[in-house]
Amino acid sequence: MPTKITAIYENPKSPEEFEAGHHEQIVLAKKIPGVQKVESAKVWPKEDGSATPAYRVLDMYFTDYAAASRAVTTEEAKAFVGKAFELATGGVRLLFTDVEDV
Questions:
Q1: Which InterPro entries match (predicted)?
Q2: CA distances (Å), 14 to each of 11, 21, 52, 66, in order?
Q3: Between β-strands 92-98 and 3-9, what pairing exists: parallel, antiparallel or unpaired?
Q4: Residue 58 in domain
Q5: What's the rounded Cα separation, in Å, for the pair 53 and 69?
Q6: The sheet that has 3-9: what strands, in order across it?
Q7: Would you say residue 51 lies in a domain?
Q8: Is the separation of the CB atoms in 31 and 7 below 8 Å?
Q9: Which end of the chain is more exposed for a tag (fewer CB within 10 A), N or C?
Q10: Domains held by the chain: number
Q11: Greatest pairwise CA separation for the chain in angstroms
């Protein structure tokens, strides 16, 4: 079953600084061995102007769980995670999920 690793970035202290470094984060994600596709999305603001539960998400797709598990042991993944924690001044969560076709 296809697997994706999702980075959920919580609201950063400085959205401008986050955005300035986000392109590099995407470049690093694409270098991770076995990654088939990378998607980035910015969370829409709430209608009432209050803070959203997340600021951005970044999805990295792999053929299966084994491929994703191997990928995270590489130097390329280490560079990606290092940059993620540098950018994520509001916090970040990394999730492995099965991709279900419906």
A1: Dimeric_a/b-barrel (IPR011008), EthD_dom (IPR009799)
A2: 8, 11, 15, 36
A3: antiparallel
A4: yes
A5: 27
A6: 37-42, 56-62, 3-9, 92-98
A7: yes
A8: no
A9: C
A10: 1
A11: 43
